[in-house]
Design goal:
disordered N terminus, 3 domains, 8-stranded mixed β-sheet, flavoprotein, FAD-oxidoreductase_2, Flavocytochrome C3, Chain A, domain 1, Sufe protein. Chain: A, 6-stranded antiparallel β-sheet
């Protein structure tokens, strides 16, 4: 886990970045440290305003309450719970931000700071006040479990659930303070052959999904599809979704393009974020030993078998011995070192992946003899957005009629074709970025990220795009749509006329969507060694493995192969 920075620097910086709105609540004057009462303030978080209420007695902070927010479920909540507890327990603002939830943490801290000022408190004193949490120095002994799962995204949570329901003792490690990983940010599941799709009146079979994935893998990644691996995943994807809907009760409610499963309102990352939160609750309920802020650092072997892992936790380092280890720790899009090694051209390229996708599991597996494959392959995304210093994907800009244009107002690629080709075309532009253009009926991303105007001409002027060029581009786009013909870039899908005001534009840039390569595995999710044979005791699922997939396909495959890994491990350790 990356070392967090201290609040003193953060608070001095974010005071210039975040807009703060404060209003006093019920107060009564006292002669103590604070004016007793409850005060509220808001600050900009990752997805919008975060509203916080802080209650003071005359002498101390008694409660910090999160009133309203739009942060990612499971991430923003964790940041609030962690930080608010430390503020109240330590009577200090000198606490660390939560790794992976920096913007949410900063918003909470800045809002609390504002409330302290309203209550007449000394912010500077609280910023230098040491946290009263005692240092933990107890010696941790080695432990034993049946199955150790490393990484709590879709693959790890699913593997843990099925291993535990089979009667095995399971420890699930997550190096960050919250679960979900990239899975929480995916937004949708792609699959076929589910009862849910049938219930929604959608005819899209597992075979339809296989053909779709095989085409995407062959065309977009440029490598031969592993037919057996992909058939295994697509044949079981429908059952995986039905389990999530029927047993875990995830709020799936909408199907688009046959295979894409969203929440009922189709918005943002709601479905997958809530799915990961609900999966987390489910594994804890059935007795999985979930350990947050515990990072596996090295695999342990004995006589050629992987038998455990060394772990670094809040209280020190220790070893967990296990009959089977399932590696589900994610890809390496955020690892500059691995990108420099395998794809040096793209080292340092922005990514929407979480900061935790540093390839730890890939490195650990390679150290015990696992073969890595496809490491040079990944998908670029042409529609990233800089949200307060955090790179997020706004792929919705390309759907429902949206187009991408350069500063001349001209399109340069098929927005819904090959992601990587579109991103490379964008990088070839002098400005190395573009503008997404939408109308009100096709707004596919958050309006607060966008420039808005009542006419196309006004919109072009606001964003510095040639108005004549943009008008000509839209006219040509409309002409192809009206004729039901391919446009100049071969786009046929998800088009509509851009003719309903208000109009929106968002500045986007390309970056790494996800990595494809990793630990070489077979269809039983066993990690393979240099001889092509399985490494005893080691399994892998999700982006840590060479799955040759991306986006929502990779998310569904992570869940499917997480279950397969658990079932394989259970069979092998009997």
């Amino acid at each position: 886990m990356k070392k967090v920075t201290k609040l003193l620097t953060l608070l001095l910086t974010i005071s210039m970045l975040f807009g703060i709105v404060g209003c006093a609540g019920n107060t009564s004057s006292t002669g103590g440290t604070y004016k007793a009462g409850t005060y509220t303030a808001t600050a900009k978080g990752n997805n919008g305003d975060v509203k916080v209420s802080v209650t003071f007695s005359g002498e101390k902070i008694t409660e910090v309450k999160l009133d309203e927010h739009r942060e990612t479920p499971g991430i923003g909540d964790t940041a609030f719970n962690t930080i608010s507890a430390k503020i109240v327990e330590g009577q200090t603002l000198n606490v660390d931000t939560v790794s992976g939830a920096t913007n949410s943490s900063n918003a909470i801290l800045e809002a609390v700071k504002n409330c302290v000022e309203q209550a007449g408190g000394d912010v500077n004193a609280l910023m230098t006040q040491a946290n009263s949490e005692p240092t933990k120095t107890e010696q941790i002994k080695s432990e034993q479990t049946d199955i150790l799962v490393i990484g709590a995204g879709a693959a790890g949570l699913t593997a843990s659930y099925f291993a535990r329901t089979a009667g095995k003792n399971v420890i699930l490690l997550e190096k960050r303070a919250f679960t979900g990983g990239n899975s929480a940010l995916a937004g949708k599941f792609d699959l076929g052959g589910s009862k849910f799709q049938e219930k929604m009146g959608v005819d899209f079979s597992a075979e339809d999904h296989y053909e779709s994935v095989a085409h995407e893998v062959g065309v977009e990644i440029g490598k031969t599809a592993d037919e057996e691996y992909i058939r295994n995943f697509t044949s079981k994807g429908g059952a995986y979704l039905d389990w999530l809907v029927d047993e875990i009760k995830i709020p799936a409610g909408k199907v688009t393009n046959g295979k894409e499963i969203y929440s009922a309102d189709g918005s943002g990352i709601k479905l997958t974020a809530e799915a990961m939160t609900m999966l987390t609750d489910a594994v804890k309920k059935i007795g999985v030993d979930l350990r947050l802020e515990n990072a596996a650092t090295k695999l342990v072997t004995k006589d050629g078998k992987v038998v455990g892992a060394e772990v670094k936790g809040p209280n020190g380092t220790y070893t967990i011995n296990a009959s089977a280890i399932i590696m589900t720790s994610g890809g390496f899009a955020a690892s500059k070192e691995l990108l420099e090694k395998y794809a040096p051209t793209w080292a340092g390229t922005p990514t929407s992946n979480t900061s935790a996708t540093t390839g730890d599991g890939i490195i650990m597996a390679q150290e015990v003899g696992a073969v890595l494959s496809n490491m040079e392959s990944f998908t670029l995304n042409p529609t990233f957005y800089d949200n307060n210093g955090t790179t997020i994907s706004v792929s919705g800009v390309r759907y429902n009629g949206g187009i991408l244009v350069d500063t001349k107002g001209k399109r340069f690629a098929n927005e819904l074709g090959d992601y990587t080709k579109a991103a490379l075309a964008e990088l070839a532009l002098p400005e190395k970025g573009a503008f997404g253009i939408m109308d009100s009926k096709g707004l596919g991303t958050k309006a607060e990220y966008c420039v808005q105007a009542d006419t196309i001409e006004e919109l072009a002027a606001k964003i510095g795009v040639d108005p004549k060029g943009l008008a000509e581009t839209i006219a040509k786009y409309h002409d192809a749509y009206d004729k039901k013909a391919e446009d100049e870039f071969g786009r046929e899908d998800m088009r509509s006329r851009l003719d309903t005001a208000p109009y929106y534009a968002i500045k986007v840039f390309p970056g790494i969507h996800n990595t494809h390569g990793g630990i070489t595995v077979n269809t039983r999710a066993q990690a393979l060694g240099t001889t092509g044979k399985p490494i005893p005791g080691l399994y892998a699922a999700g982006d840590v493995a060479d799955v040759k997939l991306y986006g929502a396909e990779a998310l569904t495959a992570a869940g499917v192969y997480g279950r397969i890994a658990a079932e394989s491990a259970i069979t092998d350790i009997k």
